[in-house]
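Supplementary Data S3. Sequence and structure tokens for construct A.
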Amino acid sequence: MKDKMNIILKWAVIGNLVHLLVAGLNTLINKESTGLMLLMTVLTLLVWTFIGFKLGGEVVKGKETDFLLFGFLCILPMLLFNLSAQVLQGTVEGLTTIQNYNLFYFLGAPVLFWNNPFYSIMNLFPESNIYIQMNINLMLVVLFSFLGAYIGKGFRIQQLRKSKKKQLN
């Protein structure tokens, strides 16, 4: 159990680091180019699928709940930032300009940076609530990392069966 959790945490951290690299690359592209923004979104989702695939291949005895836990751990840091920003925006009133400035740079900037690769999806619904869009982005990461882990587990089981079959022959 401890080994499985360590592997899950390892891949969640690697996934977040790679996501931050993709988000950093996304700041360098032209936001007017819809195709390029869509390409960055697809790259981000492929990265999360690949990270899940690698986890699924490493944790063959993992259950679906382990893969959901993995998806949740992948988004946990950003989920905390997102929820904090949502709660504080709705409850804190009467702040001075410098307090609003500090609140934005402490909570808002990391949230916007992490969601940077998803701008092509967010631009589809310009009139909707920004926090709903960001929560959808988080759920996309959970979905794609879960699917990747599930596919990776199936692929690894198939490899193990083939190697076992070869050993028997």
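Construct B, processed identically:
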Amino acid sequence: MKIKTLLGMAMVFFTLVTVSGNSYADTKTRSVFNGKARMELPAEYQKMPDSKLKEAYSSSGRPKEAWYMTDRNTGAMITFSVFEMKGKKMAESNLRAVAEGMAEEFGSSPPTMREGKVNGRKVIWLELQKMSIKSSGKRASMMQLSEYRGSLLVTTLIVDNDKGDRHYSAGKRALKTLFY
């Protein structure tokens, strides 16, 4: 009798943890990148107002758009930045060389580089190791590089203080849904 009760309680607990532990079961298809693309984002994400973008970034390094969420001590953000290649157009065939150059900039802590496809387009992911940040937490980030109309599109995921990688995993899934 006691074993059945304990097993029953364990099953209820497991069900509650499984169902309520992942608030990212709900996603929404959002118009992102000033309406030029779509992405399946966790429902909690909201577009960052331009005034906040201007406060957070200098004009030279400011992304074109950002979507973010905060959940207690965790923050997650996906940004969209476009870079023109001086004197020439960006092509998918140049992505690897650009990614390798970017990876070299990280010096002794280079990112992990992987190639893949997102909605039929070649992409390169640069994933940075978790690092300590000022607020005594951890930061994880991933950049997705792709060609967009002859320019380099860098879609960046940044997650701070993520317990159990829940927000980071949801962000990585979102990156793989970018469509333009």
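The CA atoms of residues 22 and 116 lie 26 Å apart. The longest strand covers residues 121-132.
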